[in-house]
Every structure is written in structure tokens, then in C-alpha cells.
């Protein structure tokens, strides 16, 4: 199409209904990628897909809860049915039910494990066979600086993100035949709707104020995703860490 290496690539994005996933979808669509968008808020996804299609892009939206293995399989199948394959899976959906361990919020911990870790595993299980069949494919996963600098209140969230980092490194080492590329992207504070999943009102207000005060725009993370994807097939960007310059 344009000589842009991203043009015509087929990219599925989980958590595309807001924040980093939405910004990634917009940027990749503008560069000619064909998109399959998944999240639970189907109304938001439909609006986004309609906007992208009206602007001349190819985009399909479907209701996906990443905690359900079958939903994630359907996301991958939709890419192969609609566009003949899947080049990149952006495993981005995530929630942040943060709080001190002393709260004993087992339900919140379980929810984070289900979305942030199990959801990513569902993506790997669904897309890896397609990648192997095609002879190429790329997993891009949104991790977090919360896993790099451990701070109070974010222990279990950070643990889910570090579990994913571990899985991605294992996947990299199991994929040195050149078929599968893996990229973990760790953003610091980004101005998104992630605070919406925090149940504790005081913590939620603190995170919201950090996001508003110095958070990166989600487009900054989208550019990092595009950078990883646009590399030639023999170049694997394993890790990208990006923070607001003022973040400690
Ligand atoms: P948002 O809350 O704006 O986006 C999160 C996305 O995940 C939404 O599209 C949401 O869609 C989706 N999602 C949540 N639960 C599920 C589920 N069960 N199944 C499918 N989709 C789901 O926040 P961000 O854009 O910030 O979050 C994106 C990723 O970035 C997350 O993994 C987050 O942990 C990570 N991150 C964010 C940082 C930040 O400061 N914002 C910093 C570091 C990492 P819906 O509700 O419609 O399902």
C-alpha cells in the first residue's frame, strides 16, 4: 500500500475500548493496519470501529472478555476469517484493583489474576498455533513499571504484571526459531480510564490525580507498540520501558 511496514498487517487488540488499546488501534489504523478490536464495552468498540472504517481503515469489533478462553479464541478466529491471518496480537486488556495487602481483597486479587495474567495466557494459547501455521507472528503485551519498581498498594497488580513478563521471556526463549516475536511494553503513569477499576476511593483519587498531573498520553504508548511492530522480521524488540520524565 504505502511502503509502511505496518500497512496491511492484521492486528488484534484486547482492551481496545479505551486508553492505550484505543490509542494503539487509532495509530495502527492510520498506518494502514487491519484491526480486530476486542473488549467488553461493545458500544464503545462499535463507535471506534465505525469511525476507523469511515476514515478508510479496515476494523472489526467484537465483544471479548479475556477471562473467557472462548472469547479470545473467537477474536483470533475473526482475524483469520476476516483478513486471512493474524500478524500481531496486542495483549493489552488489564485492570488495577490496587490496595494494601492488609485489605485481604482476595476477590480483587483474583480478578487481576484472571484479566492481567490468565487473559494474556488465553491470547498466547489462541494465537500461537496460528502464528506457527503462518510461519510468523508477534505478541505485544502491556506490562507495567509497577513490576519494575515495587511500591506499596500495588503488590498484587505488580505480581500479575511480573508473571506476564516472565511468561513473555519464556515464550521468547521457546521461539528462537524465528517464527514468533515477543515484546513487553512497560509504561509508567498513562492518562487512561484504568483508575476506574480501583475500588478504594482514596487510592482511586490519588492515582487519578497522578495521571492527570503528569501521566503520558496513551498515544505515547501506541507509538512504542508501532515501533516494535514496524521492525524487520529478524529484529525483536523484547522490552520497552517508557515513563513520564518526572515519574520517580
Ligand atoms: P483503560 O482502563 O483505559 O483500558 C483498559 C482496557 O482493558 C479497556 O479497554 C477495558 O475494556 C479492557 N478490559 C478490562 N477488563 C477486560 C476483560 N475482562 N476483557 C476484555 N477487556 C477488558 O486503561 P489502560 O489503557 O491504562 O490499560 C491498558 C493496559 O495498560 C492494562 O493492561 C494496564 O494494566 C496497563 N498499564 C496502564 C498504565 C496506566 O498508567 N494507565 C501503566 C502501566 C500499564 P472493557 O472495560 O470495555 O472490557
Automatic annotation (TrEMBL):
UniProt-listed InterPro entries: KR_dom, NAD(P)-bd_dom_sf, Sc_DH/Rdtase_CS, SDR_fam
SUPFAM superfamilies for this protein: NAD(P)-binding Rossmann-fold domains
GO molecular function: oxidoreductase activity, acting on the CH-OH group of donors, NAD or NADP as acceptor
Domain of life from the UniProt record: Bacteria
Sorted UniProt keywords: Oxidoreductase
Residues annotated as domain Ketoreductase: 9-192
Family, similarity comment: Belongs to the short-chain dehydrogenases/reductases (SDR) family.
Protein name according to UniProt: SDR family oxidoreductase
Organism: Mycolicibacterium septicum DSM 44393
